[in-house]
Prior knowledge:
Pectate Lyase C-like; single chain; mainly beta; 12% helix
Amino acid sequence: MGPMKRIASLMMATAILCVTMQAQTLNKYDKYYTDLPIEIEHVQPVQFPALTVLLTDYGAVPGGDSLCTAAFDAAIRDLNKRGGGHLIVPKGVWKTGPIQLRSNVNLHLKRGATILFSENKELYVQPNDPRDGSKKCYALIRASKCENIGITGQGTIDGQGFYWRPIKEKKVVRDGKLPEVWDAALAMGGTLRQDDKTYRLWYPFNLNNGIPNIAATPEIQEKMRPHLVNITDSKNVVVQGITLRNSPKFHLVPTRIQNLIIEDVTIDCPWWAQNGDAMDPGNVQVALIAGCHISAGDDGICMKGGVGEKGVAAGPQRDFLICNDTVYRAHGGFVIGSEFSGGMQRIIVKDCMFDGTDIGCRFKSAPGRGGQCEDIYCVNITMKNIREAAILFLSEYADRSAGGRGATDMDDKSKFYPEWSNIAFRNIICANARKALDVTGMKGLPVHNIRFDAVNFYGVREGMTIDYAEDFIFNNCLITPQKENSIKHSKNLLWNGKPLE
């Protein structure tokens, strides 16, 4: 080979190497996928056209005195029509009714920007359902059957959930006293019901400030509460950097999504908020939840998978990486359930901290709502100040809603049993929990095939309660000071190589 050919060959090889290296570095999220217990599919970046428009270009006025609903709608429709781009929300308070996102649009909030949703519930009511005449409410931010959706920036989205949520007196009372939030609720007017023989239930119904009701009774209106952000049946969704707070119900609900990224998001919700879940992805395929900070009135990061046949048809929740997240107040830090009939496959929770949650890792379901777990890993997790159990499995869960019945009262319990199996806990430290482990399986379907490696519980007040469980392996685990355990209806439990009785 002559010199010129060698030079040409070298240049071609260099060009190929550069293209290869560029392709390898294009996915900025690959940095999270290191030292994983199993291989899972990686998320891919969501791309938007460079076109940028300002909300003020469409007539929006800041300050909170006038609604910007029409401006949001016009800007999003215009961007979508022009092929997509970024809708910039500048610094200031922008009050609005519901917002509908469309394909190829990134809603970007600048630092100091707040999208404040109106307390007027009438703005969110959907047309009556022709099947039964019932009414529902639109999510405050919604999208459906879209591709390339973004909600990004360093601003805040506030749902003003105080005007929507009921308050359970028994939930907020502390040391026999009621906090200021109860007095604030009563000062707004509203409607009181008896929750049980001892405690009351406050509804934001018939308020003093003239906010209209949207249903005939507080109980019906309670069932109409919307989520803050609900994106369904879509592909390529990114939520990054923003703060979500005060949702009427759940804060972030991506459902039946392919390729979901939630990064560096803060969710701030009062601890007493009824159904104040932070994140509830459902039947999502390929997702990343990284670097988030959460304080919630209910579950923190909760995996959903649909109920019954509809859940199965939507497909499993699969290829999830949850890493570098911190959950403070919440019923559970990482949660599966209660509904997951579509199943859970290849879910990794890694390098997270749960500080002050009721339960650390919470697995809850019931007949009629359950499904099958495959390859669930919780690794390198720190738990502190856990109010109840560090790790909990519950196969007959019933969630009593405000003024309503438990979940299991309403569902077909003849099938779709929860099968808790193929779950591993590794390198976990828990300090100061009431109980180390709480397991309640079912007769005929015990919680089974669960492994614990280097899981250490310090300063717990109770040991382990295990009922209907099989094939539990504890290797290099510790409970200190040593506590008595309660073991019933269980077999093949090994604690550091010895039978656990």
